[in-house]
Amino acid sequence: MDSTAYKSGVTNAFKNAADSYDRGGVGFFTPMGRRLVELAAPQPGERVLDVGCGRGAALFPAARAVGPTGRAVGIDIADTMIEAARAEAARAGAENVELLVMDAERPSFARHSFELVLGSYSILFLPDAPAALARYPRIMTAGGRLAFTCPVFEADSFPFLPPVFTPMIPASVPAALPADWQPSELRRRYNSWLSDVELLRATLGEAGFTDVTVRDEAVPMTAESPAAWVDWSHTQGMRLLWERLPEPVAGELRDSLIAGLSELSGPDGSLVIETPVRFVTARVGS
Fold first, then answer.
1. Nearest to residue 163, comparing CAs of 123, 102, 216, 127?
2. Cβ-count burial of 71 within 10 angstroms (0-12 exposed, 13-18 middle, 19+ buried)?
3. In a designed cystine with 223, which of 26, 77, 91, 188 is the match (CB 3.0 to 4.6 A)?
4. Whole domain around residue 206: which residue ranges?
5. Given 3-state DSSP classes, what are the helix, strand and coil percentages for the chain, each rounded to the nearest 5?
6. Residue 3's pLDDT is what?
7. Which H helix or E strand runs over 185?
8. Contact status, residue 120 vs residue 236, Cβ threshold 8 Å
9. What are the boundaries of the signal sequence (predicted)?
10. Which pLDDT does position 14 carry in this prediction?
11. CATH number of the CATH domain containing 136
12. Are 129 and 190 in contact (CB under 8 A)?
């Protein structure tokens, strides 16, 4: 998969999803962002960078934690995400928040600009995340902390989705996807260093980090209904797959997901799916 074309596709997908990102009666990124900030423990007065901040699920809790004497900077490659987050900051009166359009693979900040770098479900979308992460210690203070999340990948799970969804994917979906978007290729791209804890530790060590801690926890993914979840799936990483499916196949996938999720719904039709998430923390080495 060509990295330039891939990055362009990711950028456009999230640009187009900004208005509805993390909205629509589904909760996942917000509770995950709060939990990430809780584990990262930003302190009053610290400077925090949120990489691939989206609409601020981790950024705004971090801003509240560092307080008026601190600073919380969010970067995202999608300008529409930054515009949406700026509007959120204005509504909240978050004067210690700054939002910038920037490619997270090449952060352009001065040396020692941040005590803490966050990335909630964003690091995995970087075309060469290990190389990108190696550029971050330069902009972090001595002993600065890194904290990010990613899925807990399983060998046969469908990319972008918790394992419980795998049986709901009709055979027509992988058959309709181009070769470089086949599930096996996507698993190789995303899982190659994130799925194996020892490889993850080694990769972060080579990037200049130490004291790596990996914690897998379940984050509840809630939805008002199966249809609400499917609509929401067009606003996050799975949009990359939806955009590559012919309309008849996309319709078949929608029907299959709604039917499968209906079996998991409560009496009122709502959903609560315990979704495995990997929380990773580390420090800049000496």
1. 216
2. buried
3. 26
4. 3-284
5. 45, 25, 35
6. 56
7. helix 183-194
8. no
9. none
10. 46
11. 3.40.50.150
12. no
Q: How far apart are CA 230 and CA 258, in angstroms?
A: 7
- Measured distance CA(277)–CA(265) in Å, rounded: 21
| Residue count of the chain | 286
Contact 58, 37 (CB under 8 A): yes
Rounded mean pLDDT, 73-90: 94
Greater pLDDT, 178 or 252:
252
DSSP per-residue string spanning 94-107: -TTEEEEE--TTS-
Contacts 24+ apart (CB under 8 A), 77-80: 77/7, 77/10, 77/11, 77/14, 77/52, 77/101, 77/102, 77/103, 77/104, 78/11, 78/14, 78/15, 78/18, 79/15, 80/14, 80/15, 80/16, 80/18, 80/19
CA–chain centroid gap for 220, Å, is: 15
pLDDT tens per residue, range 221-260: 999 999 999 998 888 778 888 988 999 999 999 999 999 9
| pTM of structure | 0.89
Q: What is the pLDDT, as a whole number, of residue 105?
A: 94
pLDDT of residue 69: 98
Pairing outcome for strands 97-101 and 209-223: unpaired
| Element (DSSP H or E) covering residue 87 | helix 79-92
Q: Which residues contact 279 (CB under 8 A, 6 or more apart)?
A: 35, 36, 39, 147, 148, 149, 214, 215, 216, 217
Could you give the strand order of the β-sheet that contains 97-101, starting from the edge strand earlier in sequence?
26-27, 209-223, 271-284, 140-151, 114-120, 47-51, 71-76, 97-101
107/137 Cα distance (integer angstroms): 11
